[in-house]
Amino acid sequence: MKQYLKRFIGVNPLTLTLLTIIIGLAAYSFKPSFMEFMELKTVDLRFQARGKIDPGPEVVLAVIDEKSLEEQGKWIWPRNKLAKMIDRLSGDGAAVIGFDIGFLEEDQNSTTNTVEQIERTLQSRGLSDDEVVAELERMKVLGDHDKTLARSIKNSKSPIVLGYFFQKTSEGLTNVTREEVQAHIDQTKGSKYSHVKFSGQQALRIQLPDAFMPQSNIPEISNVTEHSGYFNMTPDQDGTFRWLNMVIECEGGYYAPLSLQTLAAYEGTDLSLNIEEFGVSSVQLGDRKIPTDESGRFMINYRGGAKSFEHIPVTDIIEGRIPAGTFKDKIVLVGATAIGIFDLRVTPFTQHNYPGLEIHANVVDNILRGDYLRRTNLSFFLDVFTIIIVASVLGFAIPRFPVVPGLLTAVALTGGYIGLCLFLFTRGTILSMVYPLSIVVIAYVAMTVYKYLTEEKDKRFIKDAFSTYLAPSVVNQVIKDRESLKLGGEQREITAFFSDVQGFTSISEKLTATALVELLNIFLSEMTEIILDNEGTVDKYEGDAIIAFFGAPNVMPDHAARAAIACVEMQRKLVELRERFAQEGRPILHMRIGMNTGLAVVGNMGSSKRFDYTMMGDTVNIAARLEGVNKVYGTYTMISESTYEQCKEYVVARELDAVNVVGKAEPVVIYELLGLTGEVDNHMEQMIEHYANGLAAYRQQQWKEAVGHFDKALAFDPGDPPSLTMKKRCIEYFKTPPAKDWNGAYTMTSK
């Protein structure tokens, strides 16, 4: 597992981006069934987001609903009732009447057989009466409901389009002869496309949806009209009806559905089928070009849920309860909507109880309005373009952005693309939603995992590299702000720290190597811990010397105060160590410290593979000089004026002098750090005051007065090295005055 993680971490974002794009395009090309299933569900959501739209006024549904069943009796009705309905519709001026009902068998409600049996009985008994015979003949005619329906169809001024269905396979059909199959095919010839155009030899080999045989209407009815169309519908894998097959092939013939044949009869135009090498390119209804997919499927642009179209109960039509002109110039589709008849479907708007009849109505209205749903060349281009762009944007953003902006980028891409899909859907263009959005998820997860693993690697690297000389809190802050570790460094105000053990050379000469290392480890460990506790950064160790700084890599407004407090604590800790070392027979250690505050260059300096986090500049050099200046004044903790000004609220210090250090033109005012605020006793305060008075007189070249003040300081601290040093210097200047241009600063002659 670790090996795979290492390989993954070794992959750069560009490679991951390209891999994501390849995965997305491969899935888009091969279209796995589960993704296509999800894609269909997004189409349903788009319908629901779009909401209902009003259909045109041309289509009216004559429905066999619960009311009609209650008044006219249970289904199946005698066909003379439908004949009466046709007469009413035709008389009212219907433009065309399409039946989503099949008349596949003879009407079982006809009384013709009974009348014929009575007639045979009378003849066998030798009974004959002209009036009786005439009445029997009339009863035979009226009792033959199929003939009655056929007569109404034939006499109708409105074209009648009959519905039928195809048997997809021969399963369940026993003893069906070839002649019977051909007879059914002959009865449905009015359902064929008038023209079928093949473009290229390959088009001839295209496999379209096919069927074993049609289940046609009985000849007595089908022979009286030229128009018919199948009402087969095939749901998607989830049982939802989203498409209508615009063509079914059977025995070399190409057949059109009921909705299309109804429109052809309505407009009085021919139907054409265009097949190219990739499949069906289009269906033509006169000048109308109807888009389909390569299999001849037409995506239905549903107007809404059930009853989006006007429903008129058939019983009201039969009983003449409909106002005159209701059906004038209308496309009337006749079918069942009653729940008990079981012609109910699932659509994007409904989970049940959507009449199959209304699906045909949607198709008719789609074609009349011309507001098709289709996947165009633009759809393909935008799908591919989106997959590439989404992967590229996330591949760039996620590794570079923090978590929240990265997540917001993914959310924005998702929301923007969904908005685009919804907008184009209302304009009739369908974009793939699942594949691009899957790429958002894949790219986001891949890049986030990559970022997490690489960041963890970087965090481990930073911790390994800095934990030895940075406080844990500082290390954590550095991990959050890695810009603070720029290779080459940056200018920053810091407080530089230099320390050195007094007389360490002579001490080391008296100890074995093992004892010396042990002593140093104890000393350096204790001192380093204090530096880190105050969030300082250890630059390096040079033997017994510690070089550190405060204020980088993390920005600290109080870096000078932290450094000063650390110095006081270190000197106090060293007092404890001296007691311990004395008990253990180890050498007694004293440490000199020099500190200065100012601008310096800090950062990783070196090569990209080997570097040190260090500091450079005059500020650093002065701090190093001040550590050495301690020797002149006999002090152990010396700070510059710039450091004192930033920490004087926290510490007690006395101004010692101003010195001209080697390599600097301007004198540096120096202070001795004596302790923390509130922790210095009265004797120390009075000594500081007398020393300050002596220093003022010294700078005015009032040597005798200065000596007097230094003596007073010595009265409070007889062994005070700075007072002794300055008193001696005053005596020397009294004997040999300084040059006339003397500025009160002491000139150092060595580093």
Structural write-up:
The protein is α/β, with parallel strands linked by helices and 751 residues long. The chain has four domains: 2-30 and 377-461; 59-369, no CATH class; 489-627 and 636-675, Nucleotide cyclase, GGDEF domain (Alpha-Beta Plaits, 2-Layer Sandwich); 681-740. 48% of the residues lie in helices and 19% in strands. It is built from 26 helices and 26 strands. Strands 18, 19, 20, 21, 22, 23, 24, 25 and 26 form a nine-stranded mixed beta sheet that branches. Strands 1, 2, 3, 5, 6, 14 and 15 form a seven-stranded mixed beta sheet that branches. Strands 4-10-11-12 form a four-stranded mixed beta sheet. Helix 2 (13-30) packs antiparallel against helix 17. The longest helix has 33 residues, at 434-466. It starts with a helix and ends with a strand. 38% of the residues are buried. The model has no long low-confidence stretch (mean pLDDT 89). This is Adenylate/guanylate cyclase with TPR repeats. The chain crosses the membrane at residues 12-30, 378-398, 404-426, 433-453. Keywords: Cell membrane, Membrane, TPR repeat, Transmembrane, Transmembrane helix. TPR repeats lie at residues 687-720. It is found in: Cell envelope.
| Largest sheet: number of strands, sense, barrel closure | 9 strands, mixed
Q: Poorly predicted ranges (pLDDT <50, ≥5 residues)?
A: none
**Radius of gyration from CA coordinates:** 51 Å
Percent range of helical residues? 40-55%
The total count of strands amounts to: 26
Query: What structural class should be given to the helix and strand makeup?
Result: alpha/beta
Query: Number of DSSP helices?
Result: 26
**Distance between the ends:** 58 Å
Tell me the β content. 15-25%
* Count of domains: 4
Mean pLDDT level: 89
Shape label: rod-shaped
Keywords: Cell membrane, Membrane, TPR repeat, Transmembrane, Transmembrane helix
InterPro entries: A/G_cyclase (IPR001054), Adenylyl/Guanylyl_Cyclase_3/4 (IPR050697), CHASE2 (IPR007890), Nucleotide_cyclase (IPR029787), TPR-like_helical_dom_sf (IPR011990), TPR_rpt (IPR019734)
Pfam family, one: Guanylate_cyc
Organism: Desulfatibacillum aliphaticivorans
